Amino acid sequence: MTYVEGFLVAVPTANKDRYREHAERAAPVFQEFGATRLVEGWGDDVPRGEVNDLYGAVQAGEDETVVFSWIEYPDKAVRDAANQRMENDPQMAGMSAEMPFDGKRMVWGGFDSVHVDGSGGACGYIDGVVMPVRADGRDAYARFAAATGPVFLEHGASRVADAFADDVRDGTLTDFNRAIHRQNGETAAFGWIEWPDKATRDAGWEKIMADPRMTGQDAPFDGKRMIFGGFTPLVDR
Predict the structure, then answer these.
(1) Cα separation, 228 vs 132, whole angstroms
(2) pLDDT digit string, tens, across residues 72-111
(3) In 40-163, which ranges are continuous DSSP H helix?
C-alpha cells in the first residue's frame, strides 16, 4: 500500500511564488527517485485552535502561511531508498541551500496508508488533518477511515486518504509529536481529503456534519487535539 511522507511548513507569505517554483523544481527529482505524486497545499482556511493548531505546529509567525504537503511512494522501501539518494544528490543540495522558508521548523515524517478511497482526479482544494491516535489503535483507525470515507465521497470529495505514523521522530524545534501534544501511548495520524473545488468542499461539509453515519461513529482519536485546515493546491505532480 502507498507510503506517505507528510510535511508541515511555515512559509513567509511574501514567498508564495518562490515556494511554488522551489516545489516545482523539486518534484521531478522526487519522481526520478521513485515518488508517484507530490502535492503542496497553501493555507487558505486554517483555523486557530484552543489547544493546538497548525500554526503552532510549525511556530508560524503573523507574516507566514502554513503549507500542508505530502509525497506518495509505492512502499516504504522505495521511500527509504529515495531519501538515501537525496542525501548525496547535488540537485537536492543546491535546492536545500535556496529554501524560501525556515527548514529548522519544518515538520516531517513517514506514514503507512491504512485507507484510501476514491479515484482522485483534478484536485482543486484540500482538507489536511493531523491527529493523535492510540499507538496500538491502527486497526481501529483503519476501520473508522473505511466507514467514514464513503460518506465524504458521497458528498462531493474525490479522494480520502488516511495514514498511520511509521517513521515519526522527535525534532529539535518542531515535530508531529509536539504538534498533536502527544500523550503516553499515542502516535500521530496524517490524512487529507481532496475536493474538486472549495465551493464543493464547503457544501460537502455541511452535509457531512448532518449525516447520521458520522454521528454514530466512535472516533479512535482525541478530536480536541486534532489540527486541520483547508488548502489550495500550489503543486500537484
Answers:
(1) 12
(2) 999 999 999 999 998 887 766 556 657 899 999 999 999 9
(3) 54-57, 76-87, 90-96, 138-154
- With a CB cutoff of 8 Å and minimum separation 6, the contacts of 126 are 39, 41, 68, 192, 193, 194, 195, 230, 231, 232, 233
pTM value is 0.95
- The domains found in the chain, sorted by start residue, are 3-236 (3.30.70.100)
CA 191 to CA 206: how far, in whole Å?
20
Residue with cell 510549525: 58
Query: How many other CB atoms are there within 10 angstroms of residue 170's CB atom?
Result: 10
Neighbour tally for 65: CB within 10 Å: 21
Phi, psi dihedral angles at 26 (to 5 degrees): -75, -30
User: For the stretch 84-98, what's the b/e string if a residue is b when 16 or more beta carbons lie within 10 angstroms of its beta carbon?
Assistant: eebeebeebeebeee
